[in-house]
Design goal:
Structural class: alpha+beta
Largest sheet: 3 strands, antiparallel
Number of domains: 1
Helix content: 40-55%
Strand content: 15-25%
Strand order of the largest sheet: 1-2-3
Order of helices and strands: HEEEHHH
Number of helices: 4
Distance between the termini: 32 Å
Radius of gyration: 13 Å
Shape: globular
Length: about 90
């Protein structure tokens, strides 16, 4: 299981921008921009350990397989790697 802080560090490393003011309650918003276009946005808890269901929801929002998400959490997925995955899944025109 991952903590909210570990997730935030991994998100920033992979090119996400984090805005604590845009989330509701005890949540922050994560944004991934490609050029000037918003590609992915989702909320995540501000603190504490994340449940398996929350992690699965974030993984789906990020368009990652289980194995890719594990690499992401364990600091093996860079911004370049993540952009390549998105290009494949979303198409190069995004």
């Amino acid at each position: 299981m991952a903590s909210s802080r570990e997730l935030e560090v991994a998100l920033r490393r992979s090119g996400f921008e984090i805005d604590p003011r845009r989330g509701k309650g005890s949540h922050k918003m994560a944004f991934f921009l490609r050029g000037d276009r918003l590609v992915i946005a989702f909320p995540f808890p501000d603190s504490g350990d994340l449940t398996p269901g929350t992690l699965a929801s974030i993984r789906r929002a990020m368009k990652l397989t289980h194995e890719e998400f594990q690499s992401f959490l364990h600091r093996k997925l860079s911004r370049t790697d993540y952009e390549a995955i998105l290009s494949e899944r979303l198409g190069d025109d995004r």
